[in-house]
Amino acid sequence: MSKFWSELTASLTPYVPGEQPKDQKYIKLNTNENPYPPSPSVVEALKGVSHADLRLYPDPTCESLIHAIADRYDLQADQIFVGNGSDEILAFAFAAFFSPNRAIRFADITYSFYQVYAQLYQVPVERVPLDEAFNTPLERFYYSEGGVVIANPNAPTSKYIPVDELRAVLEHNPDQVVIIDEAYIDFGGESAVKLISSYPNLLVVQTMSKSRSLAGLRIGYAMGNQELIEGLNRIKNSFNSYTLDRLALAGGVASLQDEAYFETTNARVIQTREWTTAQLRTLGFDVMDSKANFVFITHPNQDASQLFQALRHRGVLVRFFNQPRIDQFLRVSIGTDEEMQAFIQALKEIVG
Amino acid sequence: MSKFWSELTASLTPYVPGEQPKDQKYIKLNTNENPYPPSPSVVEALKGVSHADLRLYPDPTCESLIHAIADRYDLQADQIFVGNGSDEILAFAFAAFFSPNRAIRFADITYSFYQVYAQLYQVPVERVPLDEAFNTPLERFYYSEGGVVIANPNAPTSKYIPVDELRAVLEHNPDQVVIIDEAYIDFGGESAVKLISSYPNLLVVQTMSKSRSLAGLRIGYAMGNQELIEGLNRIKNSFNSYTLDRLALAGGVASLQDEAYFETTNARVIQTREWTTAQLRTLGFDVMDSKANFVFITHPNQDASQLFQALRHRGVLVRFFNQPRIDQFLRVSIGTDEEMQAFIQALKEIVG
Question: Which of A75, B134, B155, B209 is most buried per CB count within 10 Å?
Answer without folding.
Answer: B209
